[in-house]
Amino acid sequence: MADPSAHPLFRFRWLIFSILALAYFFVYFHRLSLSVVADNLVKDFDTSAGTMGLLGSIYFYCYAAMQLPAGLLSDSVGPRRTVTWFLIAASAGSILFGLAPNIETAFVGRILVGFGVSMVFIPTMKILSQWYYPHEFASMAGILNAIGGAGVMAATWLLAMMTVAFGWRLSFELIGGCTFVIALMAWLIIRDRPQDKGWPTIGALAVKSSAPAAATQTIPLLAGMRQVVGNPHFWPLALWFFFDCGIFFGFGGLWGGPFLMHVYGLSRESAGAVLSMIAWGMIIGSPLLGFISDRVLKSRKKPFVICTAILVCEMGTLYFFPDRLSLPMLYVAFFVFAVCASSIVVIGFTATKELFPVEIAGTSVGTVNLFPFLGGAVFMPFLGNVLDTYPRNAVGAYALEGYTTMLLVLLISAVIALICTLMMKETFQRH
User: Which domains does the chain have, with CATH numbers?
Assistant: First the structure.
């Protein structure tokens, strides 16, 4: 019998993954792109910082609102169609943003971008569940998240270079053009399942079977939703996502920079260098954790417990010694923080997928993906309110006591997340 690993499916799936990974690169690129050109936008549109903040946040509102529809569309109309049409919307939004004559048009462009890129991650998870073995899924999700980390890096230095060379308007028009090319590649090359190419399922190849694939079970959308939210093992995962990503978005995505500048007196450039370790933590930690889960520990629950326990220790260290870490220790701390609070989410999505039938992989992952953004939406303003309860100094910096209280909130949240990991079900299937 021929070696199943020689089947063209195994080469073709990497082509599919490369296209989807490139699309996911631009998801993170768009997410952070405004931070680089904010000063230009304020000047060109003659607007306020508050309006600019709303322009930046509209992406997150659109993204969060579309996570459940993304799962439902992936399971109904199919991930290929979903990715293609919404990437076209993102492409149009980016081009419109670059051409915008006023701030109102810029908002329309940014909304189109937010809605468009929101339909990449969940369909990608659906496609990976069809083209890769279950024991490969976490590793592939880790590589995908690492490419998202590369998008974080590109959204800063690469966009800054493009803005200097071409101006911010042409830069966003070029980004829109690249996004359209990716959408075209997705339509022409990506297929939802191996069967769409006339090939056997990945499971059939695993047992070296050439028998026709069994008919795929169809689960109605509402029935799939009820199955997800009615599963008691879903909720420890969902709550973990809420607290873990609340910590990550709240501290790593917003208040970590002011903490470094106000408590340690770092310049904006030095604080940015320390914060860049978050991107490196995603790039290195995501595929590493996926490999460890798939190949070393052969477990989903163990990486959860280990990483969240480390996060508890780190938050505890920052709480008890908020202003006593050396600069090298801060670099290490933010790298470890990214691994244990961000890279670990790839195991979360893998475990969510494994809790349910593959036919509702999009619905299950889309449902759980509401909770990270809900955590960020709650933690960002809540931590700000905590800081506001303490008086600022003469130059407007928040007090050390305010940051200490904020870190206590983060420590308590990390402990709750750790408790959630202990309640999780082990979903790794040994083959």
Answer: 4-206 (1.20.1250.20), 221-422 (1.20.1250.20)
